[in-house]
Design goal:
By secondary structure, the protein is of the alpha/beta class. The protein starts with a strand and ends with a helix.
Length: about 500
């Protein structure tokens, strides 16, 4: 078996490493940061600890796969607790809806807060979502495509997806199913993870709604030496290392080495060190990989005029005091505007005039995140990416920070700031995320499935991609699958 270098110790790279180890390959993981995790990083400010990346974790069975590949049991490495509610949704009219764990509990929430008709509609909606998920995963998500013709490999599945309305639009589908406009938002905001307004997103992306609103949202139980969402990549890196992977931290890859026949044969680090390999897995954001490591390669068609997801400003705030009763781990505050807000963000390149925001309070479930009597807050507001945006961030940052602070105070969150860090599009870009967005390429039809930039290139045999910029796409479940798909490509190549 051969040696494989994996560039990046994020979730995609670590998942790929575990599956490659299972196939008998030697694996060297090279990570430029001092800790594993990639976008699922960790920020320490005094006694406050923040997760810098994803805050929502779903589908733990997909995380169990790379652990199992190296003979490890997820439950032995990490305890995942289901959050109930998964979300607390606050609306501009002052009303509140909770996304509850379990079908019956959620049905009762809808019946009590919305109507009996919408509660009955929820039954049919969940059935539809389950069918959609079980159809999409094996046939369209958890598989490698060599061309668009691969969509017809199982014509029965493709036809069924069409009959189910999968290629319709998510927003109109939700309006047909539910009367209460609050439910249109609660079950449609997940389209933002795909970089689209609900009215523009294909209905197939309702699988994201299924993952979090039906199957549930989890958070790692704090343990010695690890806590928060960063505990997930830390545990995965530990399992890979125990199975024989060499994890090299604080090391940046400068270029991909090639043989005389043009195939990838290793990497060169910034300090001049060369690591030989029979194949290379690259998990950098794909446009950034082509702009830095692969300047001489032709770009995939999808990267010639790419459409990027919106970006976000994330305000990490350590505050004195604790939240008022009723505030949940995840809190979504919907503005009064909906379609107009997406027009601002996606078409106008402007800040939303009536923004919706996400506030996470990890310290509610992680006592290691803040000193006693204090809290950590993760405040997110979607903003335009740098490719379409017209925002003068030097002028706008302090004003946006003050608006977010006033918002926290008005909504009952503690707001006596002890430490803080504001991260916006310019900071994401400095971290290597194209167009200054952590959400990668948008999932437009032209950037979905086999039309998304592929995880191999004929211009450099032996190089395989993984991560949110390639297939199957954005989100923790998707990048875990991406790592598995990349490992399958390497196995095929090295045979």
């Amino acid at each position: 078996m051969g040696q494989v270098v994996v560039i990046g110790a994020g979730l995609a790279g670590l998942a790929a490493s575990c599956h490659l180890l299972a196939a008998g390959h030697r694996v060297v993981v090279v990570e430029r940061a001092p800790i594993p995790g990639g976008r699922a990083g960790r920020l320490v400010r005094g006694e406050f600890v923040f997760d810098t990346g994803p805050t929502v974790f779903t589908m733990p069975e997909l995380l169990a796969e790379p652990f199992a590949a190296v003979g490890a049991d997820l439950a032995d490495r990490l305890t995942l607790n289901r959050l109930d509610p998964a979300y607390r949704a606050r609306f501009a009219d002052g009303s509140t809806l909770h996304v509850r764990h379990g079908h019956e509990a959620m049905r009762e929430e809808i019946a009590r807060e919305c109507s009996a008709a919408d509660a009955a509609a929820y039954d049919d909606f969940v059935t539809w979502l389950e069918q959609l998920y079980h159809l999409e995963i094996p046939h369209f998500i958890d598989r490698n495509f060599d061309s668009a013709a691969g969509l017809l490999a199982n014509p029965g599945a493709a036809a069924r997806l069409v009959r189910m309305g999968g290629f319709g639009r998510l927003g109109p589908l939700l309006r047909r199913r539910f009367r209460d406009p609050r439910l249109h938002r609660l079950f449609g905001f997940q389209a933002m993870y795909a970089g689209l307004a609900p009215d523009d997103a294909l209905a197939i992306y309702a699988v994201i709604t299924y993952m979090d609103s039906v199957r549930g949202v989890y958070f790692p139980e704090p343990a010695a030496g690890s806590s928060g969402m960063h505990a997930i990549p830390a545990a995965l890196a530990g399992a890979a290392a125990d199975a024989g992977a060499e994890v090299v931290l604080d090391a940046e890859v400068r270029r991909v080495l090639t043989r005389s026949d043009g195939a990838a044969c290793g990497v060169e680090l910034a300090d001049g060190t060369k690591i030989n390999a029979d194949a290379v897995v690259c998990t950098l954001d794909l446009p950034t990989a082509y702009a830095t490591l692969l300047r001489d390669l032709p770009r995939p068609r999808a990267l010639r005029r790419p459409a990027y997801s919106p970006s976000a400003v994330v305000w990490h705030v350590g505050v004195r005091d604790t939240p008022t009763p009723g505030i949940a781990h995840h809190n979504i505050h919907f503005g009064a505007a909906w379609s107009d807000a997406f027009d601002d963000l996606l078409d106008g390149g402007r800040l939303m005039r009536d923004p919706s925001r996400l506030v996470c309070v990890p310290s509610l479930d992680d006592p290691h995140a803040a000193p006693e009597g204090s809290s950590t807050l993760y405040v997110l507001e979607p903003v335009p990416n740098l490719a379409v945006g017209t925002v003068d961030w030097a002028r706008e940052r302090p004003a946006l920070r003050e608006r977010l602070h006033a918002f926290l105070d008005a909504e009952g969150y503690p707001s006596d700031v002890a430490v803080e860090e504001l991260v916006g599009p310019e900071e994401w870009a400095a971290q290597g995320m194209a167009a200054g967005t952590p959400f990668a390429l948008a999932h437009t039809f032209a950037q979905t499935g086999p039309f998304r930039p592929g995880n191999v290139t004929r211009h450099l045999p032996g190089l395989v991609f993984a991560g949110s910029g390639t297939v199957p796409g954005v989100g923790v479940p998707m990048v875990l699958i991406s790592g598995k798909l990349a490992a399958a490509r390497v196995r095929e190549y090295l045979r």
